[in-house]
Design a protein that fits this description.
The longest helix is centred in the first third of the chain and has 29 residues. The chain is built from five helices and no strands. 76% of the residues lie in helices and 0% in strands.
Length: 143
Amino acid sequence: MSRREQLGQIFRFALVGGVNTATFFGLYLLLHPWMPYFAAYSLAFVLAMVGSFFMNTYFTYRTRPTWKKFLLFPLTNVTNYVIQSVGLYALVAWVGMDTRIAPLVAAVVAIPFTFVLSRKILVPGAAAARAAEPEPVGTSSTV
């Protein structure tokens, strides 16, 4: 994959992430008055994750969605969920941040982890293809 293609993928991921975050946050704000903040957060997270799967398969990685990918995709979000959940709790309980804003801040922290994990699930072989690319002449590995 060329650097230009990689940058395009990162740009599309960021765009999808923005749409997904707005969707998640909107759902959270709609649910928040009707249930405890953490329950609203969890339900909004699951609903937004389904949308994220389809946006990332069709738009970000331009790959075909399959049931296997759909069933594996939540695994990529487990790390994201844990990071956001711990962040949400810490921001609310320890920092005293408003429960309407804290999920947004916690989501931003989790973005890099989500990109790496979602790519591994939605583009099988992407890591292997990168490893097979020849190393540029004049460089050496430190590993």
